[in-house]
What does this fold into?
Amino acid sequence: MMRFTTDSNMTYFLSIDQGMPFRVTAVTETGQPVPPEQWKPYLYFWDKTSFFGMGAEEDGLELLMTSAEFVRLFQRPPHHFVSFEGLRSEDRQLLSLAEESANRMEDPLLWDAVTEQDGQVVIGDSYASPEVRRFLEQAIEQQLQAKNLTSALLPALLPFLKEAGWDGLPENDDYVIGMRLSEPEESAYWTFETVIRSKRGSVYWTPPASRRTAPIDQALPAKWRDHAEEIRRQQQLMLSLCPTTEPPNPDCFYSTDLTDADVLAFLREDAELLQAFGVELSLPAWLRAVQESKVRVKANVGGPVKKQSAVGLDELVKFDWQFSLNGHEVTRQEFESLVEENRQFIRVGGEWVRVDPALLQKLRTLIDEADGENWTIKDLLFKDMPELEEQGDELELEDPLVEFRLHQSLQELLDRLLEKRDLPETVIPAGLQADLRPYQKIGFDYLVFMREQGFGLCLADDMGLGKTVQLIAYLLHVHRTPQARPSLIICPTSVLGNWQKELERFAPDLRVVSHYGGSRAKEEDFQSSLTDSAPDVVLSTYGIASSDAEALQAIEWTSVTLDEAQNIKNIQTKQSRVLRKLKGQHHIALTGTPIENRLSELWAIFDFINKGYLYRISRFKEQFIVPIERDDSESHKEQLRRRIQPFLLRRTKKDPELQLNLPEKQEQLEYCPLTPEQAALYEGLVQETLGKMETLSGFERKGLVLKMLSKLKQLCNHPALYLKEPFTTADEILPRSQKLERIVTMAGDIAERGEQCLIFTQYIGMGHFLQEALNELYGFEVPFLTGSMPKAKRDALVASFQAGDFPVFVLSLKAGGTGLNLTAATHVLHADRWWNPAVENQATDRAYRIGQTQFVHVHKFVTIGTVEEKIDSLLTEKQAMSDQFIQSSQWMTELSDRELEDLFTYTR
It folds into this structure.
């Protein structure tokens, strides 16, 4: 503690908490707390730096100060009514340290011991005790921060600090000394010189030309000659703050010529130091205002060089270049001269402007390249996809370097890219076993158009809008004539079976092979297997494509398609890197979610479809990720939207144009393969049961069939249900069942898009698995409505779902299949099949009923090669004959042993 005494014999006791910052409180001799405003005027009585305490920071009864402030307050005697005394040993020690540090801050020898290491101020061990050194190091760093300087500048400041200290040049009653920078007059050089003015005047004096090289005492006017030595010393101190200038002659007034580059170096490095220490600096008023001035280049693109009936992206274009500086036009010859002279500040139209020589050089390189290398319209797009603005009968395109103005004759082509309108019509392949809806036909035409123009693309339609059938139509068109190489489709394992079925259904003429499983051809055998089978389409998965990367990368495919392309979103993973290196004549990405969390995911997709279009990832981060994700910049968002728009086709179910063309309800089978574990258990159960069946009576046989049917359905859902194992973690459970993994992924995607879905299952265990996995992976609670749930709770859950309180609702097929109104759902997922179609339809109608205003997408999950797929085919056939034929699963018990064997046997 420290004690203040006043002329009224009042003593204040200061309690000091040494930290960052120091915290100081005061009490009277009786222990009464005293507010800082009563005693801080004595503490700051001589302190001009803080305006006598006006800038001091308070926190309740505490006065806050940095170590630099604490030391500074002891550089002069206190108020003459006040004396300081430490009452405790730690207070006396702290006071002694502050006093010693204050004295050493005035010591010129201090600066001989100061250095800078790794951005920190360091004082040599021999200079003072560790405690004093720590005080001084903190004080110096805080003094630098107060002047907006960094520790890295300390070496350049040491000569000045040693002579002048932190307060800078001492004031003089007769004159003010400073530095002046003047723009070029006749030559290309600037003038940087020492100037003097009278204390009360504003006109600067410099030596006349005849006395410029004379000693300072002879060059000065008589009125200032007595100050010659002081002026000489002050000039030397000022120039010590200008490390970029040449060493001065100490006996003469300083004056030198600077180039444009010297001026920029001075403004960046020296001017800040001069102003930080209060040196008067005179600069041309216009100088800082023109630092952002920029050359504008317009390139009038006059249309294709070769006149053809149709304009394409590979057409050559010709340019008519125009140049301007700050709105003043310059000729091509004047522009070339600017580049050659390497000037940074020039006078145009009566005013000074600053230009960037590196930018000028870059512009000339770009212009020479455009003129000399026969640029096409495609080259323009890849140089920088510009923003569009209509200018009368022209279309104006802007990028950061050049303003391209395209003649109206090219607008039609750009409209096709940007708006996907008026695309060239492509005849739908005769082999397509489906009717394309109008918007799907646009997607098909767009796929073909982009292939013909040599651009990859991302088809990002909403789930359920038919990305698959659009691509299949495209593949039929591409392979309508024999191709040297097949097309490659990479997809998640969980949808591999779906692709097999959809290709078989919609394009039976395409020759399709799957590159999957342990028996697949590898390395050298892979190429020969393709030669032998001559497929049109090769199907593979992300995991296999990553493992067999070298074999797949060795082939130039007719086309390469990534389904669920968000699987390459993590750009640093091996899977993403190897897939982005696949070679194809045309690259296509299919995804309903091109961006899930980060813009880097969009970059990864574009790096696959059009490598280099969104630059290298480092530039993309600087140009888009940082301003958008950190600063939420709307202008950068719009710039990025414009840039990706030509190569991204995105339609949603909420688009008004599409609603008219969509059915109110779409049902879709989602095919999933069995995992090896499921397949082994499935085959074992079938063989064991069929062996028992031969010895049973008719009634026992029917019971065994129904029992086996239930076990097989549980096994198709997940082996843990059949084996009666509990849920552990999503990472352990999901890989054991492609069906469960796909349902969870689909439900999560639906929820993340802001939609809601119902999931129906016949099995309590399956419902719990879905609850646990969705909660673990996506972080939201998933209610499960079963027959045992009380009516009040059931009604409350239905009301909450309708209100949008949770996105996913799992329901027992029997308990949730009737009597509920759940029209908030836009998706219905049937995890397992009920063999009576009427029961499934009743469940679907919980969402698709009166009051539903949105499109409803129904997904029925079927495991390939199992009883689920075979019974689905039988149901389709029998329901076509009579909707009344099937009332329950009892009809299966009437099948013969041979029919049952065919029905239950797993077909790979």
About this structure: The two ends are 87 Å apart (CA to CA). The longest strand covers residues 295-304. Residues 1-8, 305-311, 385-401, 880-888 have pLDDT under 50 and may be disordered.
